[in-house]
């Protein structure tokens, strides 16, 4: 869209403005008629929810979607692409659903594209990452607060959900401050892990997998591990909702703590299984052994099958992909409860480290990989991963 051409919200364009724009488009905000005050008396719960919403959204809802797009100087289709990426529901033309803060956020994203700092594709991808991660985070936090109210105040779940509306405002500022603090710390760690130290890992991977054409195009070298609880399905069928929730939370908390202390990253939890990565074969081995030991010693949780493979991966959308991930998953299914399996290449990378003992097993035909010799990984000299 040329900066000298008039903006037309009906032009059918499905693209964000070109980065060649020298300055963001500025347009006067449309005059919005004030909504009539509601009739009748609002309940205390509705008043509390209205106060909370106004605080969270930065003001009253006064704008319709076309008005926000027009004020930001972008087509409605382009604005909707960004709103969909954030996870917003569809609003109709007559829905007064947006605030001045929504306009400011949309303009901020568009300015990055107009200034050439992000392409349209990158802007949508970054926006989608924020939307998906904060959505999951909010659900987690709300359920944690409700569960705590039920336990500490001795009230039913339904009552706690209503009471949360009036109690949450006391926590908002602190939670927001922690969120921004954590994001900055995680961004620093992520840049170090995914950019600054990536080259060393690739060199180590090339040395261990010389001539492996399947792995060569992938940009990162990582230790990829899975930990899978044994007999989780049969156990979950015998548990009530409260007991099952406690077991799942105990499993996730224990995994997150061990992986974090070991310097790894918990990629995701899939029911009774966790996927994690580490920057070196030794770090991945330490984490894997610590997870196996922790579940074997836990008086509530069952044992776990654990497997770890060192190799190249593709990191996208907060997840990881590639043959290394698939092989680690296949080895997990072969592992005996309470044991850790690695492949031969990973074992070779750990072979000179006295902290580990490696015991090759009988060759297995692994789907998608052919003949693989699993190697049982056991602790050698040293204390292993020490948890506080």
Characterization of the model:
There is one protein chain. With 388 residues, this protein is α+β, with helices and mostly antiparallel strands. The chain folds into two domains: 143 residues, no CATH class; 188 residues, 2-Layer Sandwich (Alpha-Beta Plaits). It is 49% helix and 15% strand. It is built from 13 helices and ten strands. The strands form two sheets. Strands 1, 2, 3, 4, 5, 6, 7 and 10 form an eight-stranded mixed sheet that branches. It has a two-stranded antiparallel sheet with strand order 8-9. α3 crosses α5. It is globular. The N and C termini lie far apart (58 Å).
List the helices and strands and how they pair.
Layout: H1 44-57, H2 65-72, H3 76-86, H4 100-114, H5 120-153, H6 157-167, H7 172-196, H8 198-208, E1 220-229, H9 232-237, H10 241-261, E2 265-270, E3 273-278, H11 281-297, E4 304-316, E5 319-321, H12 323-334, E6 340-342, H13 344-350, E7 356-360, E8 364-366, E9 370-372, E10 375-379
Parallel strand pairs: 4-6
Antiparallel strand pairs: 1-3, 1-4, 2-3, 4-5, 6-10, 7-10, 8-9
Helix pairs in contact: 2-4, 3-5, 5-6, 10-11
């Amino acid at each position: 869209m040329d900066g000298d051409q008039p903006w037309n919200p009906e032009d059918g364009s499905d693209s964000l403005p070109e980065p060649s724009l020298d300055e963001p488009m500025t347009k006067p905000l449309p005059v919005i008629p004030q909504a009539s005050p509601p009739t009748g008396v609002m309940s205390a719960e509705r008043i509390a929810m209205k106060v909370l919403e106004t605080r969270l959204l930065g003001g009253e809802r006064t704008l319709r979607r076309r008005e926000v797009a027009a004020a930001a100087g972008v087509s409605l289709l382009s604005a909707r692409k960004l709103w969909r990426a954030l996870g917003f529901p569809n609003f109709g033309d007559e829905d007064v659903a947006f605030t001045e803060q929504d306009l400011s956020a949309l303009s901020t994203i568009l300015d990055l594209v107009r200034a050439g700092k992000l392409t349209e594709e990158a802007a949508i991808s970054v926006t989608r990452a924020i939307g998906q991660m904060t959505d999951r985070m909010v659900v987690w936090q709300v359920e944690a607060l409700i569960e705590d109210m039920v336990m500490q105040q001795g009230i039913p779940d339904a009552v706690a959900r209503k009471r949360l509306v009036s109690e949450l405002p006391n926590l908002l500022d602190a939670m927001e401050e922690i969120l921004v603090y954590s994001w900055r710390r995680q961004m620093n760690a992520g840049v170090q892990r995914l950019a600054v130290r990536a080259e060393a890992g690739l060199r180590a991977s090339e040395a261990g997998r010389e001539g492996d054409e399947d792995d060569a195009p992938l940009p990162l070298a990582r230790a990829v591990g899975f930990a899978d609880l044994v007999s989780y399905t049969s156990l979950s069928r015998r548990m009530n909702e409260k007991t099952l929730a406690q077991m799942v939370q105990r499993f996730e908390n224990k995994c997150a703590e061990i992986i974090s202390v070991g310097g790894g990253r918990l990629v995701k939890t899939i029911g009774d299984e966790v996927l994690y990565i580490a920057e070196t074969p030794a770090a991945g081995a330490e984490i894997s052994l610590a997870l196996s030991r922790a579940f074997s010693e836990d008086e509530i949780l069952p044992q776990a099958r654990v497997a770890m493979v060192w190799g190249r991966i593709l990191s996208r959308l907060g997840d990881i992909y590639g043959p290394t991930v698939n092989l680690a998953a296949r080895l997990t299914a072969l592992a005996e409860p309470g044991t850790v399996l690695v492949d031969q290449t990973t074992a070779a990378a750990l072979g000179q480290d006295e902290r580990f003992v490696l015991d090759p097993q009988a060759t297995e035909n692994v789907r998608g990989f052919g003949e693989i010799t699993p190697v049982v990984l056991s602790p050698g000299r040293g204390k292993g991963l020490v948890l506080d």
